[in-house]
Design a protein that fits this description.
Blueprint lengths: L7 H5 L2 H9 L3 E4 L7 E4 L2 H9 L7 H5 L10 H4 L9 H9 L5 H19 L7 E3 H6 L1 H11 L6 H10 L6 H24 L5 H11 L6 H14 L2 H15 L2 H9 L4 H11 L9 E2 L4 E3 L2 E3 L4 E4 L1 H4 L35 H18 L4 E2 L21 E3 L1
Helix pairs in contact: 7-18, 10-11, 11-13, 14-16, 14-18, 16-18
């Protein structure tokens, strides 16, 4: 029996699969052999517990020690901050938290809004555009590259490597991208060391060079890779999913069109309704641990699904309905929970809101340029997002 996450229909619409899994228990053992066997967590309360459970480790290097995986991921990708536990995780996260606080993002907001405007300046009513290619990708890519100090000439290559890292079912492509991106980042770190600027990467280089106890060279490169990839991949999908959800729910779309001041609040419900992170980066149990009512044996991998949790009827009333006035939408787990909660959540919210605002205010007649059932979805089990989203302006 194969994993339910390998069904081609899962990439297009994972929610029926999640509902079926939940019927058999909020924490369910998955089929598989060796290190691929594990447990799926699809209930809201169980997912919230698992995401913050100290008995579940993110230290994947420790899990795979001595196991033959047949993979050649670069250590900067396979052993990044997301794959560490305290105290290393605490130390690394503290170094970059300040750049992503709500206050820091508020200072960036005018830049984000201006960028969204600039990206759509050439759009003409009546034209057909791909909102993924023309807005959902370049907006967060440009913002995170600007924050880190990635030269504009390098951004297309960086974006291509980042996309390849999520190529489900193509391990050689993923591994090659990990080396390409890590080697590029190592060269960029060296460049910032020779010619520093006022961007975040230069600040991290300064921390590394002034106090090596805070940050090793490998950790510096790894942190740069993680910030770059995490800083735009999920936001791109969140923007596309939000636009599609609104176009498929005309009454909700009209609610925002008639009152754009609702957009910031609506972002939470859009993130809940169709989460970009459908399955979180996985955890494992060094010792036996209990999640919900299920005992998970030592050594078991655990896949927590924010996408499933956000559609749990035990937590959200009528969860398959998009309701932009839902009072408890903010309780979603799209950004995770606990010490690994998404560092860039305030930035992602600002970018999604800016994209929606420019689309709804500039192009009130916006509609799908292709039937929804013909849209192409990314081949990734971690991220649920569109490859393209053609729109008629």
């Amino acid at each position: 029996m194969s994993s339910p996450f390998q069904d081609p229909g899962f990439l297009r619409d994972p929610y029926p699969t999640y509902a079926e899994l939940r019927r058999d228990g909020a924490v369910r053992k998955l089929p598989g052999t060796g290190h691929k066997a594990g447990y799926a967590v699809t209930g809201y309360s169980e997912a919230r517990q698992a995401l913050a459970e100290p008995g579940l480790s993110k230290d994947t290097a420790r899990f795979f020690a001595g196991k033959e995986t047949g993979r050649s991921l670069h250590p900067a990708v396979s052993q990044n901050m997301l794959a560490t536990d305290p105290p290393d995780h605490t130390r690394l996260r503290r170094l970059v938290t300040r750049a992503f606080t709500p206050g820091a993002v508020d200072l960036l907001r005018p830049y984000i809004v201006d960028l969204a405007d600039a990206l759509t300046d050439s759009w003409v009513p009546g034209d057909r555009v791909d909102v993924i290619e023309s807005l959902a990708v370049p907006l967060p890519v440009t913002v995170i590259c600007q924050l880190l100090g990635v030269p504009a000439a390098d951004r297309d290559a960086v974006r291509a490597w980042s996309t390849d890292l999520f190529a489900a079912g193509d391990p050689r492509r993923i591994d090659a991208a990990s080396h390409g991106l890590a080697e590029y980042m190592a060269e960029l770190v060296a460049s910032k060391r020779r010619t520093p600027d006022d961007a975040l990467l230069s600040a991290l280089v300064a921390v590394r060079d002034s106090d090596g106890d805070q940050l090793t060279e490998q950790e510096l490169v790894s942190l740069a890779v993680l910030l770059l990839v995490a800083g735009h991949e999920t936001t791109t999908s969140a923007i596309g999913n939000a636009v599609l959800a609104l176009l498929r729910h005309p009454a909700q779309l009209e609610l925002l069109r008639s009152d754009p001041s609702r957009i910031d609040r609506a972002v939470d419900e859009l993130l809940r309704y169709d989460s970009a992170v459908t399955i979180a980066t996985w955890r494992w149990a060094p010792e036996a641990v209990r999640v919900g009512d299920t005992d998970i044996p030592a050594g078991s991998p655990v896949s927590v699904s924010p996408g499933a949790a956000n559609r749990d009827p035990d937590r959200f009333t009528d969860p398959d309905r998009l309701d932009l006035e839902r009072a408890d939408a903010h309780a979603h787990l799209a950004f995770g929970h606990g010490i690994h909660r998404c560092l860039g959540a305030p930035l992602a919210r600002a970018e999604v809101a800016a994209a929606l605002r420019v689309l709804l205010t500039r192009f009130p007649g916006l509609r799908l340029g292709r039937p929804a059932d013909q849209l192409r979805w990314r081949r990734s089990r971690l991220i649920h997002g569109l490859e393209s989203l053609p729109l008629l302006l």
